[in-house]
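During the reporting period the student researcher (J.K.) took over the structure-prediction task from the postdoctoral fellow and processed the backlog of single-chain submissions. One of the processed entries is reproduced below for the supervisory committee.
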Amino acid sequence: MALIGNLDSLNHLFYKTQEMQYLYEYLQSTLKDQAIHQRILNTQGEVKIPLKYDMFAIEQSYNLKESHKAMYESHYKYVDFQLAVNGEEFFFVGEKSDFKIQQESLEKDLIVYEPNVLTSTFFFKEKTLAIFLDYDVHAGGLALNHLTSKNKIFKSVVKVPKELVKLKL
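J.K. obtained the following structure tokens:
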């Protein structure tokens, strides 16, 4: 299942390889480097930022959506490292084996699933990091509880080739 927590609390996961240390430095910079932080806060939609080691970031902002409009997805080649930079959102997360594939695209590294109630709900706020592995079906940007479709989230989603991720607990 996905790993979700405060970026600072998950820092121990990033010291195993040079590639993961680089990733952690980028994630930290989205919060601490004024120029990068402001670039994300000024983002309308999505901007793709190339990084080292075949990683890339999608810096983005969007208004939240109602849960019945959730798009459930997972990926083949990349692990998602999603960091909330500003704002709040909810995510639904579930196990791939509980979902039925709706469509898939190897070219886009995207598998879309039919909606399913067999999910866990997570709240994201500034500094929340989620690591979604290839078997984690996730649907984000959701307006639940105190959040509405007028709320906006600013975040960075780093796509990391899954062979670079060596999570051992």
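The committee noted the following: The chain has a mean pLDDT of 95.
J.K. will present the remaining backlog at the next meeting.
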